[in-house]
């Protein structure tokens, strides 16, 4: 077997077989040539080393081409009009839904387009709120919340999976509780008694965007189901890095975002079990999601259209389809193995940089190649600036996750995060650059 697979996705007419991806190689994947931005120079001609995938991933040429082709040849409003390009646009829009559903292990009618995962989470939370206000009829009564009820989140959550539940609790009188984080940056599953017979919703991340820790979904799900609570999974950090099957997981709702999985910005998706979506009142209302409108009242379409008010982001859904097709052709097992290999190199390298404190698991088991760290006495913005001067792009700040940073006793951190296009050379450049940072500020 050659030392690395052929670079372009065009060479993969089918997902690779298991026998074709073993053993794990030094560079399991070499796909950077598919991503035009990775060939550019920054900061006075330095090659770009992009390690901010956890914030926004880069797009392969196949995604850029798909979106451009749609706009050039097929752009029209979907589910409206009888002319040819409107039919083509609608077909592309729904074909994208089917492709994304297959990618995450869902039925096509269980995928709702949203503009991002944040909107998807607000859609769920506000659906519960509308049910609590009496909207949605008898079928929605299952979602009613009151002062006797509790909502459980975790200390690891991105603000998008925390603030909407805080708001729901404040508006319904329900109590918000949370699963704490251990000193290693994993959820403390010894504290699952926080999920009890009063719990109505358990919302949690599949993988932390700060510590990189992968959640033991089955354990939390078993506890939640034992008390009849609804489960909501934030899969933003997992969908592009791990094989994901929502039916197999048994989750009730899940959200993910296109721009974190090689796709365009402005598009994301909500997964919901069909019978649950059918009972959930809509959050956004207007055109395209209605059946009959009179001056007195309106009836709504069944899901997923019920939750897709207004003109949709059609070109972006086409781009998202190209992204999941790309990942699927590479093979998600192959992607996960590649990134697990990079995580091991990152972990070893970070532990050898003097003074650097890792905010997260010190083992590569059950973690992503996402590493937030603190350099004591040096502000993360200064760390990021010195790395940027070397052409290395990382994230600095609290990463929209203040509570978990507070649990580590810091206000912010520097974060390096890898993706399918990241190479060992990128990781080695980052580790070398971090040594220079420490030396510079010493």
TrEMBL record:
Domain Aminotransferase class V: start-end pairs: 49-430
EC number: 2.8.1.7
Catalytic activity: (sulfur carrier)-H + L-cysteine = (sulfur carrier)-SH + L-alanine
Enzyme class of the recorded protein, top EC level: transferase
Record keyword Transferase present: yes
Keywords for this protein: Pyridoxal phosphate, Transferase
Keyword Transferase: yes
GO-annotated biological processes: cysteine metabolic process
Pfam families: Aminotran_5
Alphabetical list of NCBIfam families matching this protein: sufS
Protein's name in the database: Cysteine desulfurase
